[in-house]
Amino acid sequence: MFSPKRVINAFKYSIQGYKSAWHTEAAFRDNVSMVGLAQIFCFFIQPEWRLWLFFGACNVMLIMAELINTGLEYLADQISTEHHELLGRAKDVGSACVLTALLFNGLVLGTIIWQAL
């Protein structure tokens, strides 16, 4: 059953997650800053709103990947601060997720710049 209180609480927890990632993860701050600047840059060089919107969706996926990676790192560090092969793999896979999103964003931005020339 729909509960407005549950929705409000979920929203508050999500905001706490953003704040936590912002305050503890330099990579998250870097990526948020980078996608903000790239989105503004894209707005000025690409008047086609569909491409601008598509690039925005790519940027959102990058931030989502970074948030998932941050969550994996929090969990792995909570489980153990010692080196464990599987925890290291989990962190590496999270990092690979972010890299994949970054590479795709670079490809899309490169295409947008190429079309604007």
UniProtKB/TrEMBL annotation:
<keyword id="KW-0997">Cell inner membrane</keyword>
<feature type="binding site">
    <location>
        <position position="6"/>
    </location>
    <ligand>
        <name>ATP</name>
    </ligand>
</feature>
<keyword id="KW-0444">Lipid biosynthesis</keyword>
<feature type="transmembrane region" description="Helical">
    <location>
        <begin position="93"/>
        <end position="114"/>
    </location>
</feature>
<feature type="binding site">
    <location>
        <position position="25"/>
    </location>
    <ligand>
        <name>a divalent metal cation</name>
    </ligand>
</feature>
<dbReference type="GO" id="GO:0006654">
    <property type="term" value="P:phosphatidic acid biosynthetic process"/>
</dbReference>
<feature type="binding site">
    <location>
        <position position="73"/>
    </location>
    <ligand>
        <name>ATP</name>
    </ligand>
</feature>
<keyword id="KW-0418">Kinase</keyword>
<dbReference type="InterPro" id="IPR033718">
    <property type="entry name" value="DAGK_prok"/>
</dbReference>
<dbReference type="InterPro" id="IPR000829">
    <property type="entry name" value="DAGK"/>
</dbReference>
<keyword id="KW-0443">Lipid metabolism</keyword>
<comment type="function">
    <text>Catalyzes the ATP-dependent phosphorylation of sn-l,2-diacylglycerol (DAG) to phosphatidic acid. Involved in the recycling of diacylglycerol produced as a by-product during membrane-derived oligosaccharide (MDO) biosynthesis.</text>
</comment>
<keyword id="KW-0547">Nucleotide-binding</keyword>
<feature type="binding site">
    <location>
        <begin position="82"/>
        <end position="84"/>
    </location>
    <ligand>
        <name>ATP</name>
    </ligand>
</feature>
<feature type="binding site">
    <location>
        <position position="66"/>
    </location>
    <ligand>
        <name>substrate</name>
    </ligand>
</feature>
<feature type="binding site">
    <location>
        <position position="6"/>
    </location>
    <ligand>
        <name>substrate</name>
    </ligand>
</feature>
<keyword id="KW-0808">Transferase</keyword>
<keyword id="KW-0812">Transmembrane</keyword>
<feature type="transmembrane region" description="Helical">
    <location>
        <begin position="51"/>
        <end position="72"/>
    </location>
</feature>
<dbReference type="GO" id="GO:0004143">
    <property type="term" value="F:ATP-dependent diacylglycerol kinase activity"/>
</dbReference>
<feature type="active site" description="Proton acceptor">
    <location>
        <position position="66"/>
    </location>
</feature>
<feature type="binding site">
    <location>
        <position position="25"/>
    </location>
    <ligand>
        <name>ATP</name>
    </ligand>
</feature>
<dbReference type="GO" id="GO:0005524">
    <property type="term" value="F:ATP binding"/>
</dbReference>
<keyword id="KW-1133">Transmembrane helix</keyword>
<keyword id="KW-0479">Metal-binding</keyword>
<keyword id="KW-1208">Phospholipid metabolism</keyword>
<keyword id="KW-0594">Phospholipid biosynthesis</keyword>
<keyword id="KW-1003">Cell membrane</keyword>
<feature type="binding site">
    <location>
        <position position="13"/>
    </location>
    <ligand>
        <name>ATP</name>
    </ligand>
</feature>
<keyword id="KW-0067">ATP-binding</keyword>
<keyword id="KW-0460">Magnesium</keyword>
<comment type="similarity">
    <text>Belongs to the bacterial diacylglycerol kinase family.</text>
</comment>
<protein>
    <recommendedName>
        <fullName>Diacylglycerol kinase</fullName>
        <ecNumber>2.7.1.107</ecNumber>
    </recommendedName>
</protein>
<dbReference type="GO" id="GO:0005886">
    <property type="term" value="C:plasma membrane"/>
</dbReference>
<dbReference type="InterPro" id="IPR036945">
    <property type="entry name" value="DAGK_sf"/>
</dbReference>
<dbReference type="GO" id="GO:0046872">
    <property type="term" value="F:metal ion binding"/>
</dbReference>
<feature type="binding site">
    <location>
        <begin position="91"/>
        <end position="92"/>
    </location>
    <ligand>
        <name>ATP</name>
    </ligand>
</feature>
<keyword id="KW-0472">Membrane</keyword>
<feature type="binding site">
    <location>
        <position position="73"/>
    </location>
    <ligand>
        <name>a divalent metal cation</name>
    </ligand>
</feature>
<dbReference type="Pfam" id="PF01219">
    <property type="entry name" value="DAGK_prokar"/>
</dbReference>
<feature type="binding site">
    <location>
        <position position="95"/>
    </location>
    <ligand>
        <name>substrate</name>
    </ligand>
</feature>
